[in-house]
Amino acid sequence: MAYKTSQKQALEGQNTPHRAKPRRAKKMMTNTKLFPLVAAICISFLSVACASNSTSSHPSSSSSLLTKPPQWREHLLLADSSSHVGLGLNTVAAWLLSFLAASVSSAGGVGGGSLFLPILNLVAGLSLKRATAYSSFMVTGGAASNVLYNLLCTGCGRRAAAVIDYDIALLFQPCLLLGVSIGVVCNVMFPEWLITALFALFLAFCTTKTLRAGLRIWSSESRGATLAVAAATAHGREEPLLLPHGTDAGNGGGARGDAGFPWKDVSVLVMVWLCFFVLHVFIGDKHGKGMIRIKPCGVAYWLITLSQVPFAVAFTAYIIYAKRKKQVLHNQEDGKANPESTKMDTLPTLLFPLAAFVTGALSGLFGIGGGLLLNPVLLQIGIPPQTAAATSSFMVLFCASMSMVQFILLGMQGIGEASVYAGICFVASVVGAVVIERAIRKSGRVSLIVFLVTGIMAVSTVIITFFGALDVWAQYTSGAYMGFKLPC
């Protein structure tokens, strides 16, 4: 019995390795594949740690942990630039990401500056100052493409006149530019931690409100689609889910769909742009660099800065007077009130300049383009999504182009490379506009624009809040002053 037992154990001992051999072999192969990857990661982190130890004699554990991502990024960019001649992998990646960001931003009627800055700074390896200048080129290219698409590629301007509400653009533009100037001054005075906290709270609030508006529009579209299908079944014919452009009375410019291109309104907008542009060129940047020598925060500086207030008030008063006079003459010719009143006619007139001023002030305070806040504000006022997206892009074109031309006149470097990025955004914006247009026509849901804007705002909130928190932490660990500052 003992012999049989020992023989049985021997046989089991011989069979066990044979059954475990494939499993062990597979495990050994997996470990062999993972070993180079783990070793490379360890070597990379050791090199980053050595670099941080060499630059600082007694770094704290928390500060060294926060400085590892920028050092790791610089290590990758140096390796990429040394291994590639001419066009680097990081530049190609920045182009692709810029194309994707521009197409999504254009489809939602948002400038996209909050997405371009991280791409240019983290992927392309540009400094924050240079990335800001490049971003103005990219936003201008995307907005110009979107406006041209609305004007030329959709019915020779007739649909654009129905989608872009020039009355809202006229009432918004002067106070919007004034608000940006005041917001920039507040940005210099407020501490970084307060700006980051206010931005996170405000943009999170706007994201929630925009999402609720999108859900409300989606629900109304679902009810409208059900009624349209029922009516079509009763009459034995098919009805479109969306009314043709120019016939929707709820659209911001539906009453002016057949009036042609409003040259007079655009001329007034260009005049406003030129006046504020000349003032900004005279003022110069925050370092006092401008077309003429003006002492920063001197008497001439503040006189030119404060002169924007009467300019904005005068232009806004003239626009309100001209629009009311035009409406009165139109009603007298018809003998009765116009039944196809626009959204501007059904809301208080002063609501638009006030909303524009608040939007511009917040944009200047947070250091972002106006497009990220313009579209949500228009949606909250009650402007239809298509009109809000097109009108927002139209106004963003004026704001971004002012910054772009100012950068050029002040001797910006790298205009050729910035033009390449602007060209990429120009093409990407057309792609985004075509895709969202087809998606709306196929689904019959304009609320897709609202959800797209919500997604962009959510991503921007996370990105800008994260990097703002890193800057605040860097100031705190370095012992920098974190209180309120004077504007000069």
From TrEMBL:
GO CC field: Cul4A-RING E3 ubiquitin ligase complex; membrane
Location(s), subcellular: Membrane
GO terms for biological process, alphabetical: protein ubiquitination
Name this polypeptide is given: Sulfite exporter TauE/SafE family protein
Keyword Cell cycle among UniProt keywords: no
Region entry Disordered, spans: 1-25
Pfam family, one: TauE
InterPro entries, alphabetized: TM_pro_TauE-like
Chief localisation class: membrane
Family: Belongs to the 4-toluene sulfonate uptake permease (TSUP) (TC 2.A.102) family.
Annotated membrane topology: Multi-pass membrane protein
Polar residues bias locations: 1-17
PANTHER family listed in its UniProt record: CEREBLON (PTHR14255), SULFITE EXPORTER TAUE_SAFE FAMILY PROTEIN 5-RELATED (PTHR14255:SF3)
Organism: Oryza rufipogon
Entry keywords, A to Z: Membrane, Transmembrane, Transmembrane helix
Residue intervals passing through the bilayer: 92-119, 168-186, 193-211, 266-283, 299-321, 350-374, 418-436, 448-470
